[in-house]
């Protein structure tokens, strides 16, 4: 995990030294990367009638379409536009190499209690509950399908709680803006899209750890809840959800650029 600490120190130094008063005044949110979770050989959560990978892709593409249509000055980059499987580090590297201003990964949730439903938006950080840790472990476990995962992820073990200890430090340079965007999303879901919001939370997601910009992971709902799964597979509801994310992004962009 030495490489993690080294990357953290370098990132904080670079971020702290890269902003001047002029930079802040001229700052624009010009590029967003939208990641549809899972894909290909990795279906993600499997519900009664759907797979997470398909619902996430539909909402991700619709979100990108609405942003492009209403904000032509913003470049939208997708990590996937079909049933392919980019690795977690490839998704983050795409955002990093394109110098994105914001990264968002879209997912669907699941839990053994099928009465639980609602959205959750995560930022990088420490696990506040066992549920958060379990979710991160489930999402991160897809790296076990990669032959060289130990080398690529610095011997990170997605099943070991000890591997998550340093994660509360990573992304600290971008934490404030990540939280701001996450709060905007949950506000829109609750007040405009009329969905149950379970709030903004933190957990150690590898796909967020690898990015070098404000980043969030959106769990749009639970496929383990029969009613919510049907709603998430409804095309009209997918447009509503995507519209809520668009408005959250629009407000985030305006607030940063006007402040």
What does this structure look like?
The structure is a single chain. The protein has 259 residues and is α/β, with parallel strands linked by helices. Helices cover 45% and strands 15% of the residues. It has helices spanning 2-17, 21-25, 52-70, 88-97, 130-140, 149-152, 175-191, 206-209, 226-232, 235-258, and strands at 31-36, 75-78, 102-109, 119-124, 197-203, 215-222. A six-stranded mixed sheet has the order 2-1-3-6-4-5, sandwiched between helices. Strand 1 (31-36), helix 3 (52-70) and strand 2 form a beta-alpha-beta unit. Helix 3 crosses helix 10. Residues 1-23 have low confidence and may be disordered.
Counting helices, strands and paired strands, the structural category is: alpha/beta
Shape: globular
Order of helices and strands: HHEHEHEEHHHEHEHH
Helix percentage range: 40-55%
| Estimated radius of gyration | 17 Å
Count the beta strands. Answer: 6
């Amino acid at each position: 995990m030495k490489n993690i600490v080294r990357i953290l120190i370098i990132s904080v130094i670079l971020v702290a030294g890269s902003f001047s008063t002029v930079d802040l005044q001229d700052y624009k949110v010009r590029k967003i990367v939208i990641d549809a979770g899972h894909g290909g050989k990795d279906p993600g959560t499997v519900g009664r009638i759907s797979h997470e990978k398909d619902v996430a892709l539909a909402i991700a593409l619709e979100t990108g379409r609405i942003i492009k249509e209403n904000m032509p000055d913003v470049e939208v980059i997708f990590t996937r536009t079909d049933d392919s499987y980019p690795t977690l580090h490839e998704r983050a590297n795409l955002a990093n190499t394109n110098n994105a201003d914001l990264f968002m990964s879209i997912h669907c949730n699941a839990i053994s209690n099928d009465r639980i439903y609602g959205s959750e938006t995560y930022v990088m950080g420490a696990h506040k509950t066992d549920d958060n840790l379990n979710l991160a472990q489930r999402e991160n476990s897809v790296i076990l399908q990669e032959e060289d995962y130990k080398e690529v992820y610095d011997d990170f073990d997605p099943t070991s709680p000890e591997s998550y200890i340093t994660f509360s430090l990573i992304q600290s340079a971008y934490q404030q803006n990540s939280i701001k965007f996450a709060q905007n999303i949950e506000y829109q879901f609750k007040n405009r899209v009329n969905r149950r919001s379970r709030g903004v939370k933190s957990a150690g997601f590898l796909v967020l750890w690898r990015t070098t910009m404000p980043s969030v992971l959106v769990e749009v709902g639970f496929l383990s809840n029969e009613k919510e799964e049907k709603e998430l597979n409804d095309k009209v509801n997918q447009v509503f959800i995507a519209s809520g994310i668009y408005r959250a992004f629009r407000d985030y962009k305006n607030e940063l650029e006007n402040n």
